[in-house]
Amino acid sequence: MTIRNLIHAFEPKSVAVIGVSGRQGSVGRIVLDNIVNGGFEGDIWPVNPKYAELDGRRCYASINDIPGIPDLAIIMTPAETVPGLIGELGEKGTRAAVVITAGLTRENGLRQAMLDVAKPYLLRIVGPNTIGFMLPPRKLNASFAHMDAARGDIALLSQSGAIVTSLIDWAGANGVGFSQIVSLGDMADVDVADCLDMLAGDPGSRAIVMYLESVPNPRKFMSAARAAARVKPVIAIKPGRHAEAAKAAATHTGALSGADRVVDAALRRAGILRVNDLAELFDATETIARFSPLERARVGIVTNGGGAGVLAVDRLMDVGGELAELSAATMAVLDAALPANWSHANPVDIIGDAPPARYRAAVEAVAADPGVDVLLVMNCPTGVVSSSEAAATVASLAREGRIGGKPVLTCWLGEQTAREGRRLLQAAGIPGYETPAAAAVAVSYLTDWSRVRKTLERVPSGTGEEIAVDRAAALAVFRQVAAENRRMLTEPEAKAVARAYGIPVPETVVARSPDAVEQAAAHLLKASQTVAVKLLSKTVTHKSDVGGVVLDIVTAEAAGEAARAIEGRVPAADIEGFAVQPMIRRKQAQELILGLSQDAIFGPVLLFGAGGVAVEVMDDTAIALPPLDDVLAGDLIDRTRVGRLLAGFRDRKPVDRAGICGALKGLSQLVVDFPCVVAADINPLLADSDGVIALDARIEIDPQAVERAAPNPVLAIRPYPAGWACDAAVGGRTYHLRPIRPADAALYPGFLARTSGEDLRRRFFDPDNAYSDALLPRLTQIDYAREMAFVVLDKEEGALCGIARLSADPDHEAADIALIVRSDLQGHGLGRAMLDRLIDYARADGLKRLEGRFPAGNAKMRGLCEAAGFRRVGEPVEAGLVRVSLAVA
């Protein structure tokens, strides 16, 4: 598991501080002072041979001199000394270290030397080049930050030390506390994914905030992020939004899928809320620090300035918010309490001369409305009434930042006049924002997590059972292209592959000469009014750019002349022949583009949007990561402007949305099945109420990768492994074994009702938390990469009968296993069938070893493992537990 030994860093009982100094202002001095002054209650062991003691505290000459085994070591010594110190710590028994020292790079070899000496001990390293580590609940400030952080339930992960100190400073002034603060530095070992895995199961961290500069291991990151986002909000800022896009271009998709668009798609698919700048990160942190996410947020606005209310509504609509519709009863209460010239609508404009009593009446009335979920209260300074008195009134109504149980957000406009009012509101637990727009966006932080979390429940299959595909036909085309050592498919070849993956294409006749073009045109004109003649070339990608396309040809003779004209415009060496096609006439069809490209970090990405020759100019596209299902394909469509046109307008009927989704799923399945596919364009894909049809297709492959096995190993998200489903006859009954799905959470109550407490204790060492509401999403929504779980279902009833699970370590060499069989079904061989399935899967997945641990008194599990070939190994990690291992490679 990626969190192996990280518990020693996140819950240390002792700390060795290596490289301490007596010199004021030095890193070694600041870190030691921060640890001591922060009140850490465990053992603190300073290490530096230059000192016998520092400020009355004994200082040790070496690691070997420390009287105990440090859970966590903080290292601040010169770079060249770090690998040796890591080795000494590992030998001592320490299993986690924070390396503040910079200068351990790939170029000088010190980074790898440090990792090499740590590996035999599984000693986990945070850093190097970090400002340190802060655990406010444990009173540990092992950093050289300028101030301590208050205790709270927000976890902060940052690849920038400057962002860490800035957030700590801001949080101190705004009453926001933290559960963990990890400055990740260069992430030589412990990376953001490891920390996400750790924090996903941390009950003390209600939400996670991240500053990301890079994603070194995308599949690991996506897996960890998805696991964390299933159970708590995760907010990230990722700079570099306008980095130069890929210039590639064998395909339009390569030019349109810039790196930041892919990052945005990846974070969306991971269930992460993305913000764009530090101001938004501060606002988002404050919002989620105070309130839990909401499924729906109908906003009631109270303001003493109509303009401020309009600004808030505009921004609320921009971010997909919802303005509450006030009930007749609420309107009546407001009519009785407010002047006749109030706005008589939401936003409730109580007029610029509103005294505190008017604020009270309006806020209480809006808060009591059953159609309001969130209150936004604003104040514009005037010379008539006091902004601070208005704030005091609103604050007096609040309990833990809520009025009537509903979250309250505020915007006290101005600076000098608003300062005292903001302070009063903050003291009441009410977050404040500097502008109406910022306050409106803050509402979206409460709802967006609930929205994006729904995408995590989608587990598209890697077998393409939802669409009709002909893998053999596509493979035959790819093999022919590879045999000729080509990368680009010709148009007829590309269309043949598209057809094999369920994307409709027009009939295409390949002609090698102008005379043959005439014959083909004569054939096609029997069923079509006009035809098109296109250049067939293995070297020219964009045919229209060289005059290689002639449309609307009405006679066979004209088709032959068109081919001869193309011959006059294109060098003979670039001409393989011509493609003759019927012209597709669909007056009300919309031109779309479907595309596929390779991102340097996240691998294959899919594109959808408005198509045609001006696709780059229109730039109306959206990006998604494969694999897709109907819901994810529909979401991709809906994130474009053209997506709204597809629903129909005026005299245009809605287009065949299912046909578009089918084409997107086909392209998605193509890249799942064939790692050799580098890029693709389906442009234009015509879509109307009668269906879809691809008029042009362009596909690029890596000829060296044609025979690589599916599913594509570079997919950032591993598809649902439907191929591992099977039936098994055990004890006279038939069971269905398959990989777990998120929806299986609904089967657990029935399973638990028929499973004894003793069996739960044998499986879970803390049975009270087994299968809790918080844990179920993590158990049933897995990544199928580092984790795999099989459920066993009664073939007839569909009831859950057992669960088998494995979780691989970061190197994907070993995996921990766990099994549980329903109590009334034990003793019939079901457990052995489950264990055999895990062993088969582990072997196929390239794992080398399976490991298990269970209470020494669990004779059933011991007998099952021994029968399957597991052998007891080593001493138990915990008292009373047995460890077993099986080589599967």
Automatic annotation (TrEMBL):
Domain N-acetyltransferase: 735-889
Gene3D superfamilies to which the protein is assigned, alphabetical: 3.40.630.30, ATP-grasp fold, A domain, ATP-grasp fold, B domain, NAD(P)-binding Rossmann-like Domain, Succinyl-CoA synthetase domains
InterPro entries: Acyl-CoA_Synth/Transferase, Acyl_CoA_acyltransferase, ATP_grasp_subdomain_1, CoA-bd, GNAT_dom, Ligase_CoA_dom, NAD(P)-bd_dom_sf, Succ_CoA_lig_flav_dom
Coiled-coil segments: none
Keywords, comma-separated and alphabetical: ATP-binding, Ligase, Nucleotide-binding, Tricarboxylic acid cycle
Biological process per Gene Ontology, one example term: tricarboxylic acid cycle
Molecular function as annotated in GO: acetate-CoA ligase (ADP-forming) activity; acyltransferase activity, transferring groups other than amino-acyl groups; ATP binding
Protein name: Bifunctional acetate--CoA ligase family protein/GNAT family N-acetyltransferase
Annotated organism of origin: Ectorhizobium quercum
